[in-house]
Amino acid sequence: MSAENADCSGAESIERIGLIGYGEAGQLLARAFVEANIGVTVLTRSPDRLRERLPDSPIAVADSYVSLAAETELVCSCVWPATAADVAAETAPGLAPGQPFLDLNSVSPATTEQIVDKIEAAGGTPLKATIMGSAAAGRDSVRLVIGGPDRADTVAALRAVGFTVQDVGADPMHPALLKMFRSTFTKGMRELVAETLAPAVAYGVHEDVLDNLNGLFDERSVEEWMRTALENTPEHAQRRLGELREVRQTTADAGYRAPIIDETIALHEELLNSSDDDYVAVLEALKGHLSDDSS
């Protein structure tokens, strides 16, 4: 057993969990706890409709956020980011002193801070977790990153029902930050994919482009690729600027904008006179390029 899944003591202290939200993440958690013979109570915005979906299920449906909190030892929030803080506020009055409230939503540190404040004000224990991977793909395909005070029993309970859990310490902001910057990369790649393939389709070479991108990360890990991509840019900035301007022209000739390429050209221009070869130093040199001028 890995260190991430070690120490399952304390899991027996949780007899029933409460789940707010019953989408992919909520259902993933519900299945895991039901299979472990731990009671599960859920609540969505339409509890009557949820009862119709679960007529013969061992899963109970709560009438309100407060009642869900009152009848469970652990509350897990799996809702849309826009409603996460409001859900915490509506649930907080039902929490017992010290009862953990685990927010699993993809929210920023600022929103996480709002949730923490609401739970602490009610006397509960605010915990933050993020789901790394696709909940739809199942328990074996995800890793839970969790932080917050007095988290040991919650971590143990999640591990005991089969989740891989990375405990990052007492700061609930840590998991939120990891999720936000992972999403910057993984969600931001969608724009890059579209910007790459749309003009390629116009030229009729999109299938060959996809084929030629196969194996891009086979020889190096993503971590190594990201570090190297920054560290070798100052040395090669001048040469690559010519190539990037040709890329922009090719895209424009197909009738498309290339906003990522525009920013990449600006990034290389910023590093023309840099001699840094450590990725953190390169990022420091790019502070002017990346900073928010509106603040």
Sum up the structure in keywords:
295 residues, alpha/beta, Rossmann fold, 2 domains, eight-stranded mixed β-sheet, 8 strands
Number of helices: 13
CATH class category name of the largest domain: Alpha Beta
How far the N terminus sits from the C terminus, by CA atoms, comes to 47 Å
Proportion of residues in helical segments:
40-55%
Number of domains: 2
Q: What's the alpha carbon Rg, rounded to whole Å?
A: 23 Å
> Which structural class fits the helix and strand makeup?
alpha/beta
Kindly summarize this structure in a few lines.
The protein has helices at residues 24-35, 47-53, 65-70, 84-91, 109-121, 152-160, 173-203, 206-213, 222-231, 233-253, 259-270, 279-285, 287-290; strands spanning 16-20, 39-43, 60-61, 74-77, 100-103, 125-132, 143-147, 164-167.
Would you give an account of this structure?
The structure is a single chain. This protein has an eight-stranded mixed sheet with strand order 3-2-1-4-5-6-7-8, sandwiched between helices. The N and C termini lie far apart (47 Å). The chain has 13 helices and eight strands. With 295 residues, the protein is of the alpha/beta class. Helices cover 50% and strands 13% of the residues.
List the topology elements:
Blueprint: E1 16-20, H1 24-35, E2 39-43, H2 47-53, E3 60-61, H3 65-70, E4 74-77, H4 84-91, E5 100-103, H5 109-121, E6 125-132, E7 143-147, H6 152-160, E8 164-167, H7 173-203, H8 206-213, H9 222-231, H10 233-253, H11 259-270, H12 279-285, H13 287-290
Parallel strand pairs: 1-2, 1-4, 2-3, 4-5, 5-6, 7-8
Antiparallel strand pairs: 6-7
Helix pairs in contact: 4-5, 7-8, 10-11
